[in-house]
Design goal:
The chain is of the alpha/beta class. The protein has a single domain (about 30-330), classed as TIM Barrel (Alpha-Beta Barrel), CATH 3.20.20. Helices cover about 40% and strands about 15% of the residues. The chain has 12 helices and 12 strands. It has helices at about 5, 20-25, 65-75, 105-115, 145-160, 175-185, 205-215, 235-245, 260-270, 280-290, 295-310, 320-330; strands at about 35-45, 50, 60, 80-85, 120-125, 140, 140-145, 165-170, 195-200, 250-255, 275, 315. Strands 1, 2, 3, 4, 5, 8, 9, 10, 11 and 12 form a 10-stranded mixed β-sheet that branches.
Protein backbone atom coordinates (compact mmCIF):
# COMPACT_ATOMS: atom_id res chain seq x y z
CA UNK A 1 0.00 0.00 0.00
CA UNK A 2 1.20 3.49 -0.86
CA UNK A 3 2.65 5.04 2.31
CA UNK A 4 1.05 8.43 1.66
CA UNK A 5 -2.36 6.80 1.21
CA UNK A 6 -2.00 4.78 4.40
CA UNK A 7 -1.18 7.90 6.40
CA UNK A 8 -4.14 9.81 5.00
CA UNK A 9 -7.08 9.95 7.48
CA UNK A 10 -10.25 8.15 6.42
CA UNK A 11 -12.39 10.72 8.20
CA UNK A 12 -11.82 14.32 7.20
CA UNK A 13 -14.43 16.64 8.78
CA UNK A 14 -13.28 19.37 6.40
CA UNK A 15 -14.93 17.51 3.52
CA UNK A 16 -18.29 18.82 4.75
CA UNK A 17 -17.04 22.42 4.88
CA UNK A 18 -15.95 22.91 1.29
CA UNK A 19 -18.86 25.12 0.15
CA UNK A 20 -21.54 27.31 1.71
CA UNK A 21 -24.27 25.06 0.31
CA UNK A 22 -22.69 22.00 1.91
CA UNK A 23 -22.12 23.81 5.21
CA UNK A 24 -25.75 24.88 5.20
CA UNK A 25 -26.95 21.35 4.51
CA UNK A 26 -25.21 19.90 7.57
CA UNK A 27 -25.69 22.90 9.88
CA UNK A 28 -26.78 21.76 13.34
CA UNK A 29 -28.25 24.99 14.72
CA UNK A 30 -30.93 26.96 12.93
CA UNK A 31 -31.26 30.68 13.70
CA UNK A 32 -34.27 32.52 12.28
CA UNK A 33 -36.33 35.64 13.02
CA UNK A 34 -39.17 33.54 14.45
CA UNK A 35 -36.88 32.71 17.38
CA UNK A 36 -36.66 36.38 18.43
CA UNK A 37 -38.53 38.58 20.87
CA UNK A 38 -37.89 42.32 20.50
CA UNK A 39 -37.89 44.38 23.74
CA UNK A 40 -39.49 47.84 23.58
CA UNK A 41 -39.53 50.72 26.10
CA UNK A 42 -42.86 52.55 26.04
CA UNK A 43 -43.56 55.91 27.66
CA UNK A 44 -46.43 58.35 28.12
CA UNK A 45 -46.99 61.30 25.81
CA UNK A 46 -47.09 61.73 22.04
CA UNK A 47 -44.35 62.02 19.48
CA UNK A 48 -41.76 60.79 21.98
CA UNK A 49 -38.71 59.11 20.44
CA UNK A 50 -35.94 59.48 22.98
CA UNK A 51 -32.54 57.95 22.33
CA UNK A 52 -30.62 56.04 25.00
CA UNK A 53 -26.94 56.99 25.18
CA UNK A 54 -25.73 53.56 26.28
CA UNK A 55 -27.94 51.63 23.83
CA UNK A 56 -27.38 52.87 20.26
CA UNK A 57 -30.43 52.48 17.95
CA UNK A 58 -32.78 51.78 20.89
CA UNK A 59 -35.35 54.40 21.94
CA UNK A 60 -38.02 55.15 24.47
CA UNK A 61 -41.19 55.44 22.41
CA UNK A 62 -44.61 56.90 23.08
CA UNK A 63 -47.50 54.66 22.07
CA UNK A 64 -48.21 56.49 18.81
CA UNK A 65 -44.63 56.04 17.59
CA UNK A 66 -44.47 52.49 18.91
CA UNK A 67 -47.42 51.64 16.67
CA UNK A 68 -45.46 52.92 13.67
CA UNK A 69 -42.77 50.32 14.42
CA UNK A 70 -45.12 47.35 14.29
CA UNK A 71 -45.37 46.93 10.53
CA UNK A 72 -41.58 46.70 10.26
CA UNK A 73 -41.37 44.19 13.11
CA UNK A 74 -44.02 41.96 11.54
CA UNK A 75 -42.53 42.34 8.05
CA UNK A 76 -39.20 41.09 9.39
CA UNK A 77 -40.87 37.93 10.68
CA UNK A 78 -40.38 38.73 14.36
CA UNK A 79 -43.41 37.18 16.08
CA UNK A 80 -43.28 38.87 19.48
CA UNK A 81 -42.38 41.96 21.48
CA UNK A 82 -41.64 42.41 25.18
CA UNK A 83 -42.94 45.63 26.73
CA UNK A 84 -41.27 47.65 29.47
CA UNK A 85 -43.14 50.70 30.74
CA UNK A 86 -41.93 54.10 31.87
CA UNK A 87 -44.59 55.72 34.08
CA UNK A 88 -45.15 59.45 34.39
CA UNK A 89 -44.76 59.21 38.18
CA UNK A 90 -43.46 56.76 40.78
CA UNK A 91 -44.32 55.91 44.37
CA UNK A 92 -43.33 53.47 47.07
CA UNK A 93 -45.93 50.89 46.00
CA UNK A 94 -45.36 51.11 42.27
CA UNK A 95 -49.03 51.83 41.55
CA UNK A 96 -48.28 52.65 37.91
CA UNK A 97 -47.49 48.98 37.33
CA UNK A 98 -51.06 47.81 37.94
CA UNK A 99 -53.11 50.91 37.13
CA UNK A 100 -55.77 50.14 34.48
CA UNK A 101 -54.64 53.22 32.56
CA UNK A 102 -50.93 52.56 33.05
CA UNK A 103 -48.61 53.03 30.11
CA UNK A 104 -48.18 49.29 29.46
CA UNK A 105 -51.91 48.63 29.75
CA UNK A 106 -52.65 51.41 27.24
CA UNK A 107 -49.91 50.21 24.90
CA UNK A 108 -51.12 46.61 24.95
CA UNK A 109 -54.65 47.63 23.98
CA UNK A 110 -53.41 49.82 21.12
CA UNK A 111 -51.01 47.16 19.83
CA UNK A 112 -53.56 44.35 19.86
CA UNK A 113 -56.06 46.56 18.05
CA UNK A 114 -53.59 47.31 15.25
CA UNK A 115 -51.72 43.97 15.08
CA UNK A 116 -53.85 41.26 16.69
CA UNK A 117 -51.50 38.46 15.59
CA UNK A 118 -48.39 39.97 17.14
CA UNK A 119 -47.59 38.20 20.42
CA UNK A 120 -47.38 40.82 23.17
CA UNK A 121 -45.40 39.82 26.25
CA UNK A 122 -45.44 42.15 29.24
CA UNK A 123 -42.72 42.43 31.84
CA UNK A 124 -44.27 42.05 35.31
CA UNK A 125 -42.16 43.86 37.86
CA UNK A 126 -42.31 46.96 40.04
CA UNK A 127 -38.79 48.34 39.57
CA UNK A 128 -39.70 50.87 36.85
CA UNK A 129 -42.61 52.11 38.96
CA UNK A 130 -41.28 52.32 42.52
CA UNK A 131 -39.62 55.43 43.88
CA UNK A 132 -36.99 53.15 45.44
CA UNK A 133 -36.08 51.51 42.14
CA UNK A 134 -36.45 48.10 43.76
CA UNK A 135 -38.52 45.23 42.39
CA UNK A 136 -40.88 45.14 45.34
CA UNK A 137 -42.30 46.92 48.34
CA UNK A 138 -39.59 48.07 50.73
CA UNK A 139 -40.25 47.66 54.46
CA UNK A 140 -37.57 48.79 56.93
CA UNK A 141 -34.96 48.88 54.19
CA UNK A 142 -35.70 45.37 52.91
CA UNK A 143 -37.84 44.21 49.97
CA UNK A 144 -40.84 42.43 51.50
CA UNK A 145 -41.43 39.28 49.49
CA UNK A 146 -45.04 38.47 50.40
CA UNK A 147 -46.38 42.02 50.25
CA UNK A 148 -44.83 42.27 46.79
CA UNK A 149 -46.55 39.09 45.57
CA UNK A 150 -49.99 40.66 45.84
CA UNK A 151 -48.95 43.61 43.70
CA UNK A 152 -47.25 41.43 41.11
CA UNK A 153 -50.40 39.32 40.78
CA UNK A 154 -52.46 42.49 40.44
CA UNK A 155 -50.10 43.74 37.74
CA UNK A 156 -50.28 40.50 35.77
CA UNK A 157 -54.08 40.51 35.85
CA UNK A 158 -54.19 44.13 34.65
CA UNK A 159 -51.95 43.20 31.72
CA UNK A 160 -54.16 40.24 30.83
CA UNK A 161 -57.26 42.44 31.02
CA UNK A 162 -55.59 44.87 28.61
CA UNK A 163 -55.01 42.05 26.12
CA UNK A 164 -51.48 40.74 26.80
CA UNK A 165 -50.76 37.33 25.32
CA UNK A 166 -48.05 36.32 27.83
CA UNK A 167 -47.03 37.77 31.20
CA UNK A 168 -43.39 37.61 32.26
CA UNK A 169 -42.55 38.13 35.95
CA UNK A 170 -38.96 39.35 36.33
CA UNK A 171 -38.87 40.32 40.00
CA UNK A 172 -37.36 37.11 41.50
CA UNK A 173 -39.66 37.07 44.52
CA UNK A 174 -40.24 33.59 45.93
CA UNK A 175 -43.68 32.23 45.05
CA UNK A 176 -44.51 34.85 42.41
CA UNK A 177 -45.44 32.33 39.70
CA UNK A 178 -47.95 30.59 41.96
CA UNK A 179 -49.45 33.92 43.04
CA UNK A 180 -49.77 35.13 39.46
CA UNK A 181 -51.18 31.81 38.22
CA UNK A 182 -53.81 31.80 40.96
CA UNK A 183 -54.78 35.41 40.27
CA UNK A 184 -55.04 34.86 36.52
CA UNK A 185 -57.12 31.72 36.94
CA UNK A 186 -59.42 33.44 39.42
CA UNK A 187 -60.17 36.02 36.70
CA UNK A 188 -60.69 33.25 34.10
CA UNK A 189 -57.42 33.93 32.29
CA UNK A 190 -56.61 30.23 32.29
CA UNK A 191 -55.05 30.40 28.83
CA UNK A 192 -52.58 33.21 29.50
CA UNK A 193 -49.08 31.66 29.69
CA UNK A 194 -46.44 32.73 32.18
CA UNK A 195 -42.90 33.23 30.92
CA UNK A 196 -40.94 33.32 34.13
CA UNK A 197 -37.53 34.93 34.58
CA UNK A 198 -36.61 31.79 36.49
CA UNK A 199 -32.82 32.08 36.68
CA UNK A 200 -32.21 35.82 36.78
CA UNK A 201 -28.81 36.77 38.05
CA UNK A 202 -27.67 39.91 39.88
CA UNK A 203 -25.62 40.83 36.85
CA UNK A 204 -23.44 43.80 35.96
CA UNK A 205 -24.71 43.49 32.38
CA UNK A 206 -27.97 45.33 33.23
CA UNK A 207 -26.47 48.82 33.42
CA UNK A 208 -27.73 50.18 30.07
CA UNK A 209 -31.22 48.80 30.74
CA UNK A 210 -31.38 50.67 34.03
CA UNK A 211 -30.60 53.88 32.20
CA UNK A 212 -33.25 53.10 29.58
CA UNK A 213 -35.95 52.13 32.07
CA UNK A 214 -34.90 54.68 34.71
CA UNK A 215 -34.97 51.99 37.39
CA UNK A 216 -31.64 52.00 39.19
CA UNK A 217 -32.03 51.18 42.91
CA UNK A 218 -31.97 54.32 45.03
CA UNK A 219 -30.15 52.44 47.79
CA UNK A 220 -28.33 49.15 48.04
CA UNK A 221 -28.60 46.61 45.25
CA UNK A 222 -30.74 43.64 44.19
CA UNK A 223 -28.48 40.86 45.41
CA UNK A 224 -30.89 39.85 48.17
CA UNK A 225 -33.38 38.60 45.56
CA UNK A 226 -31.55 38.16 42.24
CA UNK A 227 -29.20 35.19 41.98
CA UNK A 228 -25.48 35.08 42.78
CA UNK A 229 -23.55 34.86 39.47
CA UNK A 230 -21.29 32.21 41.04
CA UNK A 231 -24.14 29.71 41.48
CA UNK A 232 -25.30 27.16 38.93
CA UNK A 233 -27.04 24.39 40.89
CA UNK A 234 -29.25 27.00 42.51
CA UNK A 235 -30.57 27.94 39.05
CA UNK A 236 -31.99 24.44 38.63
CA UNK A 237 -33.77 24.81 41.98
CA UNK A 238 -35.28 28.14 40.91
CA UNK A 239 -36.40 26.75 37.56
CA UNK A 240 -37.90 23.65 39.18
CA UNK A 241 -39.86 25.76 41.64
CA UNK A 242 -41.26 27.97 38.88
CA UNK A 243 -42.33 24.95 36.86
CA UNK A 244 -44.02 23.41 39.90
CA UNK A 245 -45.90 26.70 40.40
CA UNK A 246 -47.17 26.77 36.82
CA UNK A 247 -44.57 28.49 34.63
CA UNK A 248 -45.13 27.67 30.96
CA UNK A 249 -41.84 29.08 29.65
CA UNK A 250 -38.66 29.38 31.72
CA UNK A 251 -35.92 31.94 31.21
CA UNK A 252 -32.23 32.38 31.87
CA UNK A 253 -30.99 35.98 32.15
CA UNK A 254 -28.42 37.14 31.06
CA UNK A 255 -27.68 34.87 28.11
CA UNK A 256 -24.16 35.31 26.76
CA UNK A 257 -22.28 35.03 30.06
CA UNK A 258 -24.57 32.19 31.16
CA UNK A 259 -24.54 29.83 28.18
CA UNK A 260 -23.64 26.98 30.53
CA UNK A 261 -26.83 27.64 32.50
CA UNK A 262 -28.96 27.64 29.36
CA UNK A 263 -27.54 24.22 28.49
CA UNK A 264 -28.03 22.84 31.99
CA UNK A 265 -31.62 24.06 32.11
CA UNK A 266 -32.30 22.70 28.61
CA UNK A 267 -30.92 19.28 29.57
CA UNK A 268 -32.84 19.18 32.86
CA UNK A 269 -36.34 20.29 31.81
CA UNK A 270 -38.67 19.87 28.85
CA UNK A 271 -40.42 23.25 29.03
CA UNK A 272 -39.55 25.86 26.38
CA UNK A 273 -36.44 27.82 27.37
CA UNK A 274 -36.04 31.54 26.75
CA UNK A 275 -32.78 33.44 27.12
CA UNK A 276 -32.42 37.21 27.45
CA UNK A 277 -29.53 38.71 25.49
CA UNK A 278 -29.42 41.70 27.80
CA UNK A 279 -28.60 45.38 27.38
CA UNK A 280 -24.95 45.20 28.42
CA UNK A 281 -24.30 42.38 25.99
CA UNK A 282 -25.97 44.41 23.24
CA UNK A 283 -24.12 47.61 24.06
CA UNK A 284 -20.68 45.97 24.10
CA UNK A 285 -21.17 44.70 20.55
CA UNK A 286 -22.53 48.06 19.41
CA UNK A 287 -19.60 49.97 20.92
CA UNK A 288 -16.98 47.63 19.47
CA UNK A 289 -18.72 47.71 16.10
CA UNK A 290 -18.77 51.51 16.05
CA UNK A 291 -15.06 51.56 16.87
CA UNK A 292 -14.37 49.15 14.02
CA UNK A 293 -12.89 46.62 16.41
CA UNK A 294 -15.30 43.86 15.36
CA UNK A 295 -17.64 43.17 12.47
CA UNK A 296 -20.97 43.95 14.14
CA UNK A 297 -23.06 41.74 11.87
CA UNK A 298 -20.82 38.68 12.15
CA UNK A 299 -20.34 39.02 15.91
CA UNK A 300 -24.06 39.56 16.55
CA UNK A 301 -25.13 36.53 14.53
CA UNK A 302 -22.40 34.41 16.13
CA UNK A 303 -23.59 35.38 19.62
CA UNK A 304 -27.25 34.70 18.80
CA UNK A 305 -26.32 31.36 17.23
CA UNK A 306 -24.38 30.45 20.38
CA UNK A 307 -27.41 31.23 22.54
CA UNK A 308 -29.57 29.06 20.31
CA UNK A 309 -26.94 26.31 20.21
CA UNK A 310 -26.78 26.32 24.01
CA UNK A 311 -30.45 25.31 24.08
CA UNK A 312 -32.62 28.43 23.97
CA UNK A 313 -35.87 28.06 22.06
CA UNK A 314 -36.63 31.79 22.36
CA UNK A 315 -34.10 34.63 22.28
CA UNK A 316 -35.07 38.02 23.69
CA UNK A 317 -32.67 40.47 22.09
CA UNK A 318 -32.31 44.16 21.24
CA UNK A 319 -30.55 42.96 18.08
CA UNK A 320 -33.80 41.37 16.84
CA UNK A 321 -34.61 43.79 14.02
CA UNK A 322 -31.14 44.06 12.55
CA UNK A 323 -30.48 40.33 12.97
CA UNK A 324 -33.74 39.54 11.22
CA UNK A 325 -32.71 41.82 8.33
CA UNK A 326 -29.35 40.12 8.04
CA UNK A 327 -30.84 36.64 8.15
CA UNK A 328 -33.52 37.43 5.59
CA UNK A 329 -31.42 39.66 3.36
CA UNK A 330 -33.87 42.58 3.72
Amino acid sequence: MNSSASSSPYLRPRRLRTSESLRLMVRETDLAPHHFVYPIFVSHGKGVRQGIDSMPDIHRLSIDLLLQELDEICDLGIPSILLFGLPDKKDESGTGAYSPDGVVQQAVGAIKKQCPNLIVITDVCLCEYTSTGHCGVVVDGYVDNDKTLKLLAKTAVSHAEAGADIVAPSDMMDGRVAAIRAALDAKRFHNIPIMSYSAKYASSFYGPFREAAECSPQFGDRRSYQMDPANAREALIEVGLDISEGADIIMVKPALAYLDLIRRVRDSYTQPVAAFNVSGEYSMVKAAGQKGWVDEKDVTLEILTAIKRAGADIIITYHAKEAARWLSGK
